Amino acid sequence: MAFMKGVGQPRSITVANQKGGVGKTTTAVNLAACLAEAGQRVLLIDLDPQCNASSGLAVRAPDRRRSVYGLMSGEADFVDVISHTGIDGLHLVPASADLAAADVELAGEDRREYLLADALARLDAAYDFLFIDCPPSLGILTVNALTAAREVLVPVQAEYYALEGLAMLLDTVARVRERLNPDLRMLGIVITMLDGRTNLSREVAAEVREHLGAHVFEAVVPRNVRLSEAPSHGLPICRYDPHCTGCEAYFDVAKEVVTRGF
Question: What pLDDT, in 10s, does the model give residues 183-238?
């Protein structure tokens, strides 16, 4: 499977939802990997202190300086922090646990909302896509991610608390667009962990579509045990089990990401 090559600046996409357990990191890692498998040049930035995107690709920052924290603090440049993954075309800037103190340690920094954006301005490597995986919060790290990106992708779990907090996230996106990043736009909302065998999941998916309309991707991600297993092996789903329904779903989401960019 091949997608059209990007031209010029990479498409920068922040994957965000302040609600935990919705498949945010799973979506960021597997979308990045699927696009790389399809011939795209992709950079994934792990901005979550839990470092799940990094461990899900079997990458560990050797120290604070050689992580996204070092990049944002000015201690390092991209040449110091970009790691190769096991997939051609997919590079990673790993996280470090030091990010947990970012709200306090970065509070006094000049342009603290622009630290990641300023770092990305120094990026001279050629990529088609840049994904930023956010922590499950609306703190300074997520604000940095929204300020640095052009698009926002929101994974929403197919359960009745799906819309809880979504209005707050959309309000944050609107405020960032108004005050910090006028180029920011909503790429869309992806329904994750859908169990098509139950009326409940189908009803929730229908409710999300009713409330959010065209913002919701046609492609959905099913609840799939292989998706849950893959991170423990340090592999994205396209390498762990390329024939499972979870992998097929993320390739469908990836194709829709591409088409929504035009």
Answer: 999 999 999 999 877 787 888 888 888 888 899 999 999 999 999 999 999 999 99
List the structure tokens of 114.
């622009």
Structural domains in the chain, CATH included, are 11-260 (3.40.50.300)
- Spatial separation of the C-alpha atoms in residues 60 and 178, rounded to whole Å: 36
CB contact at 8 A, 67 and 81: yes
Q: DSSP states of 3-58 as a string?
A: -PPP-SSPEEEEE--SSSSSSHHHHHHHHHHHHHHTT--EEEEE--TT-HHHHHTT
- CA torsion sign for 37, 209, 141, 222 is negative
- 253 close to 260: Cβ distance less than 8 angstroms: no
C-beta of residue 133 within 8 angstroms of C-beta of residue 45: yes
Q: What is the pTM of this model?
A: 0.94
